[in-house]
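Lab notebook, bench 4. We co-purified these components, and the gel suggests they stay together. Before we commit to crystallization screens, I want a quick structural picture of the whole thing.
Request: model the full complex, all chains together.
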Amino acid sequence: VTIKPFEWKNRQLFILDQTKLPHESHYELCPGLTDVFNAIKTLKVRGAPLIGIVAAYGILVALLEKNGKRAGEMKKIITEAGKFLISARPTAVNLEWAVRRMMEKAKSLDKALTSDRFFLEMEKEAVAVLREDLAMSGRIGKFGSALIKNRMSILTHCNAGGLATSGLGTALSPVYHAKEQGKKVTVYADETRPLLQGARLTCYELLQAGIKTVLICDSMAGTVIKQGKVDMVIVGADRIAANGDTANKIGTFPVAVLAYRFKVPFYVAAPASTFDLTTKEGKDIPIEERDPSEVRMFAGIKTAPENVDVFNPAFDVTDHELITAFITDRGIIKPPFKVNLARYLK
Amino acid sequence: VTIKPFEWKNRQLFILDQTKLPHESHYELCPGLTDVFNAIKTLKVRGAPLIGIVAAYGILVALLEKNGKRAGEMKKIITEAGKFLISARPTAVNLEWAVRRMMEKAKSLDKALTSDRFFLEMEKEAVAVLREDLAMSGRIGKFGSALIKNRMSILTHCNAGGLATSGLGTALSPVYHAKEQGKKVTVYADETRPLLQGARLTCYELLQAGIKTVLICDSMAGTVIKQGKVDMVIVGADRIAANGDTANKIGTFPVAVLAYRFKVPFYVAAPASTFDLTTKEGKDIPIEERDPSEVRMFAGIKTAPENVDVFNPAFDVTDHELITAFITDRGIIKPPFKVNLARYLK
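Here is the predicted assembly.
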């Protein structure tokens, strides 16, 4: 792991404030449950897997804060804290999943346990949530890094890196693994308008890891690919349909079209949980439209007439025929996707 | 004409300060030659054709300021003012061209003319420079508007509009003509990173003209085209090679690839002077790389780590086979371009 989006030290939770990145790497202590809630709510902590992990540790923060004396009391604290944390971002699936897992664990514990022992058991569970995410990222990295040869250049879009997860990420995990294996790798990072996760977060974490990084505007990916500057594209995913059509951050689809035109392999890195085999194809994936102000402004500066109409889809769908393969925690999945996704992911 | 990038009123030159757009439509009086020089130098006035026209009027400003009494004296004022203005932006071809034209005119005038008469002759020449640009834009608009049917939607990139010329532009002139003809037209405007000419200038002038405008990030053009939201693409050009390969603002080429994939017509609007038949093909066009800070920040706000490498090509090249036709001041030019460009533009 090359980046720590949070730290758990001496029973204290510190979160890396991502809203201050890339200019300031500030770890903020979250002494109470409300601090954890606010960190999630205000996007200081973002990325679906990371939110889940931090919430699991948030339960520990609540236990220490409320200082429950008996197991029964502690179970009650956990239930209340869990409900509160889930309400921070009600649509993030991982958040609820991780909190419910902590609640289940608490339920399963013996009422006769000492408070110390009870806490240790809960802490173990939070560590397990973290370790499983790391293991998932690690497997994606291991499988993906086999595709990367020494001195290769990789283009990525948005941030599917350590900052969105437990520290390794999905799309960036193969890059980190390749570096561990002694390979020299260069990453071209699309800045990723409107919210600039590429410029702010991907560049930050790659430079922290000592990986050569070249920032480009999204509109420059075409030239980078045409000029043969990149050997492959690796992106993350928000949802993958049964036929392989992939929803990811807006701007992914044009990159896939350009890569296809110039025969540059285009990989999607994602854990098994991102595949939704109940969704048949891309057109069945609902695409969220976000606030027009994101497009009318740049980094808080108004850049367009206030009354101009805006179209601001948060995601686009990359047709499966543009995708070379999926890099998953269960291995590399190649076409035909309809058959192979069902086989690998059942 | 729906927008006036400058005004010449009662022998006073007012320029629309484009650095304040779109938030403020401020016409700044240029009382002296230095003011005109600074307006060009600091990009208050930009767009190659417009710079030339404003410089021609700048010569008139110099004549009034220095208040020459005889024709001989006035010729000297013009020579000196001309040299000074050209130095404002030494690489802009139109600037030098327009200033030299004013100098030639001055040379041709009878030394016996009264200063009033001399000034009137020079003013006529400046008006001619303006009118010829308007006529050129008008012809592009006339030919181009024939391609636009009622209720069509058009996608454009960057600003090849009135603000870059005498008020009508190249890529946007067909849109303005279509509106004049009573057609309802919607324009999707790419914001055009890194300098956001689409968000700042194209949206501004289209809204001023009462044309329905939808602003998108460059990365959203793929979705807009895929979803069938646009009927055609029209862009401007910086240089067009003999085979039709076209250099234009970075981000044009990916739009062309996407339009081609979805069979959306892709037009390039440009006057005859933009075609360079001595350049054989796109790869012979030198592509300027600009300052990394343009990509690392916007409007003074840093968005990326300061030490991240950047690739910042200002233009890209659209391969001729992706272009449906050229909309020129001499008519629509269709493929095969190698044959037809030579025939129309000789």
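The two ends of chain B are 29 Å apart (CA to CA). Worth comparing against the SEC data before the next meeting. The first helix of chain B runs from residue 33 to 41.
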